[in-house]
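If your schedule permits, I should be very grateful for your opinion on a structural question. I have a record of one protein: its chain in single-letter code and its fold written as discrete structure tokens. Would you kindly read the sequence against the tokens and tell me how you understand this chain to fold? Thank you for your consideration; the sequence and its tokens are set out here.


***
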Amino acid sequence: MDNTNARSKSIGFNHVSVTKVKKTTGYVAPGIWPDCTDASTVQNTTAAQRSDIVYVPRNADFIGAFASSAWHSLATNSAAGWSIASRVELTPRSDNGLYNNAPVATVMSPINIPQYQPTAIHTPVGDDDGDTLRGRWSSGTTECGDVCPPGSLPSGTLIFPNCTIIITGTNVDDCLSFYSSIEEFISPSSATPLSSIPVQFLIHVVAPPSCSILPQVYELSQQSCIPITAGQTFTSCLIAINDCDASVSIIDISTLSFAEMDKSNIIKQDSMTYYKILS
């Protein structure tokens, strides 16, 4: 599969560039050529992930950024470049002397929102250290390229510290770029972040559906964490329940998964129940 950004624009090959905040030596920028994990022909998107081990010295403090172009034409900029950046600080924590674990945020893209309806979009984010997390608008060329918020979003869009935004789309088929930075703090009273990670996704404005009742989607076991034995094949289902009448159908269940996870095509069990098999 091709590695693509939303709306099937090619990402291509590039490298993560580095901006020194204090000092870092011996850093070799990894390439950007991820493994495909998910694809949707309905939304015309492909998702990919990549993990690299990079060796840097103790007490290094730097920003790694991936900057390029090939966005889908945006409502606010028809030829925008992107930049997505994370700050890495390898100074041991003052509270326990250990290295910090940065937070992790996962979000689908694009996210469809109905025209003229205020919509809340929450970014799921977690932190292994249990630190205080706050969301803010990304700013500056390094963090958001040519499409920095709030100017890249409709007037009146709000962002809250809990990583939630409230947005109202006005024009059907507008494609909007959202950038935020999630920062972690050692305590609720701290004003100095331990690290920051980027959140970047597209928002697509669509005509309001004929039925406003959202489908229910759940995983068969309904567990947030499922233990399995090494070498064991795990099989489950993503189930979507259509609470509208039979004139409305579910055409896709989008997924954002890790490598080696196989997904079936969507299967219709009856007029209300649809599912995908995961293994």
Notes: The chain has two domains: 4-206, 210-279. Residues 1-13 have pLDDT under 50 and may be disordered.
